[in-house]
Automatic annotation (TrEMBL):
Domain FAD/NAD(P)-binding: 6-333
Name of a matching Pfam family: Pyr_redox_2
Official protein name in the record: NADH dehydrogenase
GO biological process, one term: aerobic electron transport chain
Family assignment from sequence similarity: Belongs to the NADH dehydrogenase family.
Amino acid sequence: MASKSEILIVGGGVAGLALATRLGKAMGKPGKARITLIDKSFSHVWKPMLHCFASGTVGNENDRINFITQASGHHFEFWPGEVVSLDREKHEVVLSPLHASDGTVVLESRTIKYDTIVIAIGSCANDFGTPGVKEHCLSIDNLVEANAFNEKFRMELLRSFANNSELDIAIVGGGATGTQLAAELHKALEIVGPYNLHAFGKPPPKLRVTLLQSGPRILPAFPESVSAAAQQELERIGVTVRTSARVAGANSTGFILKDGSQVSAKLRVWAAGVKAPEVTTTYGGLALNKTGQILVNPNLSSIADDRIFAMGDCSFIENDPLPATAQVARQQARHLARYLPAWIEKGQKVPACIFHNKGAIVALGKYNGWAALPGGTVWGGGVSHGLSARLGHLMLYRKHQVEIFGLYRGLISCYSDWVEGFVRPSVRLD
Ligand SMILES: Cc1cc2nc3c(=O)[nH]c(=O)nc-3n(C[C@H](O)[C@H](O)[C@H](O)COP(=O)(O)OP(=O)(O)OC[C@H]3O[C@@H](n4cnc5c(N)ncnc54)[C@H](O)[C@@H]3O)c2cc1C
């Protein structure tokens, strides 16, 4: 009997986990292929919520999906580890050793073979080599970083409360991550305020958030009207928005701008630019663009090797570049889930993945939100704002949960989040 085809998916993020779950059902369950997911962490989070984890307005215990339980219920296997190299001749990847928190090696370096591999390792912020950023700035590209930021935020808030001083935070990047984080930090402070802090006999802590954007407007992916309205909303809640502010460097007290001025900040966050994780340079000499993203054909196969596919933020289609968004990642995962089985079983070519732009949504905490819908949709296009847009943003996450968990578990998860609201504080306090 011919051995089962080995399908390897590297990265269990928005794209990778959806693909593993769907392929598990289509090919793992009937025994047509062995599907293995590899991720450097043990659980999946919906990355567009990281700014909420960072500010503490959403606790992340309920919002993590454990890879081992997801794999056992959906007919795929899971291996923890970081893929640090790929050998295209031998058709294998190398995983770095897995360490315990005390530094001891739990699992030695391993190699895993594949017949077909899909790389979906996401992206991180791009500091463009700006001096001082690595040493002095925080980022919120994954759960570990978001939690580390939250720990610092809570401690610095407490310190400024004790000293009766203002906590100043500067965020570089006026895209979705930076603007949403600025609003969410204010929301966190508003929730913290009434928690009996007056008992210490001091006024509640104060926050001064500065958002630095190099371009002429924030949220450049949205229509100008949304940028202007979002800036106005941020300023209304107390955020200082500085556009056309190019950062030349960072140090332990703040950012230095190209015009020579200094923006002082106790906490400095870099949330600008997108690049692939540096490790893509060790993936068998695959063709990359200048930010390290894997160059792929319109059907998502790598231009250097048609047995290697890449999707989501770590991939790049040269003639038809798409933004690094969850919407693109999800559509690409669905495309490969649909066409990979016929390619693996019958050698049928995977067709081009056509992106259907369903618009973009941004939510500024509880304050406001905007949805920019493209013309020609059932709603006729245009911009909506307020509660409907904020709910639309939340629905993206709920849709993702239902896609990963299935309808019943997805709904139960929504319900348990709602019930939690009655017994837990609505902001992280420890
Ligand atoms: C704060 C924030 C807010 C955002 N808001 C929005 C929004 O409102 N709307 C929107 O559409 N998009 C938003 N985005 C962008 C969106 O989150 C990404 O486009 C999307 O997550 C990309 O999905 P992905 O599957 O390519 O990568 P990811 O979801 O990032 O997943 C990558 C996975 O790969 C794993 N991994 C990385 N390297 C390795 C390795 N070497 N070996 C093994 N595993 C590895 C990681 O652990 C991770 O699980 C936001 C991003 C951030 C940071």
